[in-house]
Specification:
Number of strands: 14
Structural class: alpha/beta
CATH class of the largest domain: Alpha Beta
Strand order of the largest sheet: 3-4-2-1-5-6
Distance between the termini: 13 Å
Bound molecules: adenosine-5'-diphosphate, magnesium ion
CATH topology of the largest domain: Rossmann fold
Shape: elongated
Largest sheet: 6 strands, parallel
Number of helices: 18
CATH superfamily of the largest domain: Phosphoglycerate kinase, N-terminal domain
Strand content: 5-15%
Radius of gyration: 22 Å
C-alpha cells in the first residue's frame, strides 16, 4: 500500500486530520520488541546554571515516546543541540530529560556504540548530538545506512528540522519504513489550517528580522489573509523598499531583492503608523500602531503570529510586542504562534504559560518550528516531509 501523509494542495479540500491519520505511527501493526529510531527535537537553550530553558520543546516529545514505549518498542532518540555552554552535547542534560520525559534515558555517546546498545538494552536511549557526525549535515548516504543499522522503523518527530536535508531527517527515512510522529502530525495539521484558503478574518502578524525567511511567507499569505500586520525590521525593509524614510533603522540588505514581485502598496499590508525612536532608529512600534493592531486583532478569527514588533530584549522597546501578545491572548481567535524569539519574548513577559494553558482548548497552537514553520507557511517543499510522502 502506498503510504501518504497528505497532499499539500489538498489541504483546503479534505479533512486534514483524516488525511494525516493515513500515515500515523498508530498504523504500525506491531511495535513489540521492534527497534525504533526516533528523530527528536532537543535543540534547546541552556541557562548559565545548566538548566534546560525551553522545557516546552522537550515535553512535546513525550506523547510519541510514551506511545512507542507503551507498545513495547525499543527506542533510540537522535537529535542535535547547538548550545555551546554544554559543549553541544546532551551528556550533562540526561537527568533533566528523565524528569521532563518521565522515562529513564540511557545515554549513547557515539554511533559506534549503537549496535551494542540495541543488543543489550531495551529502554529508551538518546544518542549524543547527531551533528557531531560529519555525515549528518552532508546527508551522506553511508552515514544514513549506518544510522539505520539494526532498526525496524524510523519516526520523525522533529518538525523544526523538516526543512533540512540532513541524514537524520531525510537520508535515514529512505533506509527504513518511516512515519511521522505525533508532533510532526500536529504541526502539519495546525499549520495546514493557517495555510487553508482564507476564511474571513484571518490575519498574519509578522515582525522580527531575517527577511529571507519572512518575505516568502508574506508573499504566500497575500491572498490567504485579510491583512498582514507588520512590525520589526521586516516593516523597515518594506518601508525602505517603498522609498520611505527609515533613518538609521536596522534593515536587511537582501530585502529589496527578496521583495521583488510583492505588491508593496497592497492595502492588505498594514504598516506601522508610528514608532518608538532611539538613536535615529525605529526600535518599536508606537502607541497609534499598537491601538490599530489591537483593534484588528480583536476583529479577527484566526491569527498567525511570528516575530517581535521591536527590539524587545531591551525593556524600553518591548511594549509593542507585549501589547500585541496581550491583544492576541485576549482575543477569541484561533492563534498559531511560532518563532524562537517570539516565544522567548512571551517567556520574558511571563506570558508563555498563559498561552500554553490555552493549548488544550484547541484555540492556541505553539509551533516548535522557527525556520521550519516559516518554510511551511511559505509553501516550500520540505525534505523531511517529502520523504514521508507528504507531497505525493
Ligand atoms: P523569530 O525568532 O521570532 O522568528 P526573528 O529572529 O526574526 O524572530 O527576529 C527577532 C529579532 O529581531 C530580535 O532579536 C529583535 O530584537 C529584533 N528586532 C525586532 N524589531 C527590531 C527593530 N525595529 N530594530 C532592531 N531589531 C529588531
Ligand atoms: Mg529568531
Amino acid at each position: 500500500m502506498k503510504r501518504r501523509l497528505c497532499q499539500l494542495n489538498c489541504l483546503s479540500k479534505v479533512n486534514l486530520i483524516e488525511c494525516i491519520d493515513m500515515r500515523s505511527i498508530r498504523d504500525i501493526p506491531n511495535l513489540k520488541d521492534k527497534n525504533v529510531l526516533l528523530r527528536a527535537d532537543f535543540d534547546i537553550p541552556i541557562s548559565d546554571k545548566g538548566q534546560i530553558e525551553e522545557v516546552f520543546r522537550v515535553k512535546k516529545q513525550k506523547e510519541t515516546l510514551d506511545y512507542l514505549v507503551e507498545h513495547g518498542a525499543h527506542v533510540v532518540m537522535i537529535a542535535h543541540i547547538s548550545d555551546e555552554s554544554v559543549g553541544r552535547s546532551f551528556a550533562s542534560l540526561v537527568p533533566q530529560f528523565h524528569i521532563l520525559l518521565g522515562h529513564e534515558i540511557v545515554f549513547i555517546k557515539t554511533i559506534e556504540e549503537m549496535g551494542d546498545h540495541l543488543e543489550n538494552y531495551s529502554g529508551p536511549a538518546l544518542l549524543d548530538n547527531i551533528r557531531q557526525n560529519t555525515g549528518e549535515e552532508n546527508n551522506d548516504e553511508e552515514f544514513s545506512k549506518q544510522l539505520a543499522q539494526g532498526f525496524d522503523y524510523y519516526i520523525n518527530n522533529a518538525f523544526a528540522v523538516c526543512h533540512r536535508n540532513h541524514a537524520s531527517v531525510s537520508g535515514v527515512a529512505k533506509q527504513l519504513p518511516s512515519y511521522a510522529g505525533f508532533l510532526v502530525q500536529s504541526e502539519v495539521s495546525n499549520l495546514g489550517k493557517a495555510m487553508d484558503i482564507a476564511g474571513k478574518g484571518k490575519i498574519l502578524i509578522m515582525g522580527g528580522a531575517k527577511a529571507s525567511t519572512k518575505i516568502p511567507v508574506i508573499k504566500n499569505f497575500l491572498d490567504k489573509a485579510d491583512s498582514i500586520l507588520l512590525g520589526g525590521v521586516i516593516a523597515n525593509d518594506i518601508m525602505k523598499a517603498r522609498g520611505e524614510n527609515v533613518d538609521d533603522s536596522v534593515v536587511d540588505n537582501n530585502a529589496s531583492e527578496l521583495l521583488t514581485g510583492l505588491d508593496l502598496r497592497s492595502p492588505k499590508l498594514v504598516m506601522p503608523e508610528d514608532y518608538k525612536k532611539h538613536d535615529n532608529k525605529f526600535l518599536d512600534i508606537g502607541a497609534k500602531t499598537i491601538s490599530n493592531f489591537t483593534e484588528k486583532i480583536k476583529n479577527s478569527n484566526m491569527i498567525i503570529w511570528n516575530g517581535p514588533m521591536g527590539m524587545f530584549e531591551d525593556d524600553r522597546f518591548e511594549e509593542g510586542t507585549r501589547a500585541v501578545a496581550e491583544a492576541i491572548i485576549e482575543s477569541d481567535a484561533i492563534k498559531i504562534i511560532g518563532g524562537g524569539d517570539t516565544i522567548s519574548a512571551l517567556d520574558r513577559f511571563g506570558m508563555l504559560a498563559r498561552f500554553e494553558s490555552l493549548v488544550g482548548s484547541g484555540k492556541v497552537f505553539i509551533s516548535t518550528g522557527g525556520g521550519a514553520m516559516l518554510a511551511f507557511l511559505a509553501g516550500e517543499e520540505m525534505p523531511g516531509l517529502k520523504v514521508l510522502g507528504f507531497y505525493e
